[in-house]
Amino acid sequence: MNEPSAVVLIVEDEPHARAVLQVTLKQQGYVCLHAATGAEGVSAAIEREPDLVLLDLGLPDIDGVEVTRRVRERSAVPIIVVSARGQEEHKIEVLDEGADDYVMKPFVAGELLARVRVALRHNRAAESASDAGTVQVGDLVVDFDLRRVTAGGSEVHLTPTEYRLLAVMIRSSGRVLSNRQILRQVWGPRYDEQLGYLRVYMKKLRYKLEPDPTRPRYLVNEPGVGYRLRMPG
Amino acid sequence: MLRGYGAALAVDAVSTLLAVVGEPVLHATSFVMLLTLGALVIASRFGIGAALLTAVGGAISFDFVFVPPAMAFALPNLRDGFTLFVIVAVAAAASVVVEKLRRQARRARRAAEFEGRRNAILSALSHDLRTPLSALVGAGTALEEDVLEPGERRAFSRVVAEEARRLNRLVQNLLELTRLESSGTGRKVQLQAIDEVIASALSRLKRPLEGRTVRTDVPEETPLAPFDPLLIEQVVLNLLENVLRHTPAGTPIEVTGRATADELFVEIADRGPGVPSGDEERVFEKLYRGVADRRGDAGTGLGLTICRAIMTAHDGRIWLENRPGGGALVRAALPLRRNPSVDLRRSLRDQEDT
Predict the structure, then answer these.
(1) To which H or E segment does residue A105 belong?
(2) What Å distances lie between residue B326 and A230, B247, B331, CA to CA?
(3) Best interface-test mutation with B: which of A221, A222, A227 has the largest number of B CBs within 10 A?
(4) What sign has the CA pseudo-torsion B339, B193, B269, B243?
(5) Backbone angles phi, psi at B117, to 5 degrees
(6) In terms of C-beta density within 10 A (0-12 exposed, 13-18 middle, 19 or more buried), how is residue B279 classed?
(7) pLDDT band at B352 (very low <50, low <70, confident <90, very high)
(8) Which of A44, B36, B177, B351 is the most buried (most CB within 10 A)?
(9) Number of Cβ atoms within 10 Å of the Cβ of A166
(10) Percent of chain B beyond pLDDT 70?
(11) What does the DSSP assignment read for B301-327?
């Protein structure tokens, strides 16, 4: 299996939801810890040093945004938020607070496990601090040293802004980034409300990189939240 | 409005006539009171503009009839000038109060209509929740008791998964309806790309859409538009689910995004049986169910009703056409040149008028 010894902390107050998460993860060889409240979750995330935290947004004591903030003060552990549709503002807040990704309730096992794998891989990449010269996702290849982009084997010419946008997305590939996070990284902090820019440049990138820009394979939108560079498979 | 001004002048004419005819016996005060009464009535019926016209017209009449020299216009002295001023001031104050009351009453009526409409949809939806719930309870209990043959176990497990998904669809619509209410004051919405919303809806329905040819067409130059992405995605989801439910497996679906000078369109076309001629508008009514629901689990019959509520909230429109050559085509249009705020309260209210 993938990360046979990886330890996942499940912060979830509802016993059935916790049981389902636990069974799904254990089948894949992960080791599970759990916490039933936000406060317990914060201390477990810091003291027991899990490789990943699965955080439910609807906890009884402190809300998920606060849990994320407190964990982030002390730890860089990847955090995946589990939340329902309709909590978009909340999701954005948690992402901006340093959560790595989210899974929407109700989810199917495959979806959850894919997110978990991506988050764990990112953690390792961060630890080895290997900002590699070349990043490949599916048939997209970005060579950071040469500033060269190829899609399906042929070189694609990008404007400087398009290139910066793709670079930001591919460095976080597999993870969702909030609109604001992307705007800040690509255009700068004064532009974090300029959603129109982001939409227009995303479309330009899709038309240059995607086989079918109206059914994107890589640059997908998460309505109301942000964008994700989806990994194939 | 013109009727209001006409009525105002009529009130002035009648008061003046009474004043002139009754001048020998009536005191000027009576005229002033009469005029104030007239202005009040006009304010309550036609609003502040007509009421002010009544007062100003009345003041001119007062000048003509009572300010010496009588039966001629003259610059009033201080006392009469003050009376003229009071006539106009009283009429203005009265009509402001009346107008306020009118607005309050109108708001209360609209709120009541909105609540009524929303509650009707909510109660229908809640009722529909029981169908998948009872299937879940039944199948779940049977699985729990462990008395099933392996084949039955598999069948019941599938019932659980399918009914849970159906329950999820219902709850999602229920939540969107509560969003319609909670954002009632018309909050700001940001610029969105329709192709992204379409792509997101299609990817969320990836599994049920397997085996279908889905052709998408959104020209690159299609403009951005202000709308609530989750609500519009819900419209696309409901429309696609309708197609899946009402058309034979394997028949193609076309999803189009396009813009005219002032509207942005999302269109979903199928090659199913269409709707009975004459029912094109009725399908948007609450609880309309097609005659030939394929599996009898038509779901709520509320999908299109909710779509219309959402589109109306965006100042948009949605309608269905039968296609030449067979099949249905639903067109949803969003305004492009509008102040980007969504009055979600309007949605259910205006549905009453359609």
Answers:
(1) strand A101-105
(2) 37, 11, 16
(3) A221
(4) negative
(5) -65, -45
(6) middle
(7) very low
(8) B177
(9) 25
(10) 85
(11) S-HHHHHHHHHHHTT-EEEEEEPTTS-
Q: How far from each other are the two terminal CA atoms of chain A, in whole angstroms?
A: 16
Assigned token pair, B127: 């009722």
Contact B47, B4 (CB under 8 A): yes
Residue range B105-132, pLDDT digits in tens = 877 777 777 667 677 777 777 777 888 8
Most A-contacting residue of B168, B195, B215, B231 (CB-CB within 10 A), to test interface:
B195
CB contact under 8 A, B193 and A203: yes
**Closest to A172 measured CA to CA, from A108, A223, A222, A208:** A222
B221 touching A (Cβ < 8 Å)? no
Least CB–CB distance from A199: residue in B179, B193, B200:
B193
Q: How far is B102 from chain A (nearest CA, A)?
A: 37
Residue B348 gets the label, from left (phi > 0), alpha (psi -120 to 50) or beta, of: alpha
Grouping H, G, I as helix, E, B as strand and the rest as coil, residue B278 is coil
B253-259 vs B214-217, strand pairing mode: parallel
What ipTM was assigned to the predicted interfaces of this complex? 0.85
Token code pair at residue B199? 């792509």
Count of other CB atoms within 10 angstroms of residue B324: 7
From the list B118, B157, B165, the residue with the least C-alpha distance to B138 is: B157
For residue A85, give both structure tokens.
Answer: 């549709």
User: Are residues A187 and A179 in contact, defined by beta-carbon separation less than 8 angstroms?
Assistant: no
pTM of the full structure: 0.74
pLDDT, tens digit, for every residue of A142-176? 998 888 999 988 999 999 999 999 999 998 888 89
Spatial separation of the C-alpha atoms in residues A150 and A138, rounded to whole Å = 11
| B186 CB-near residues (< 8 Å, 6+ apart) | B341, B342, B343, B344, B345
d(CA A166, CA A162): 6
Q: Average model confidence (pLDDT) for chain B?
A: 81
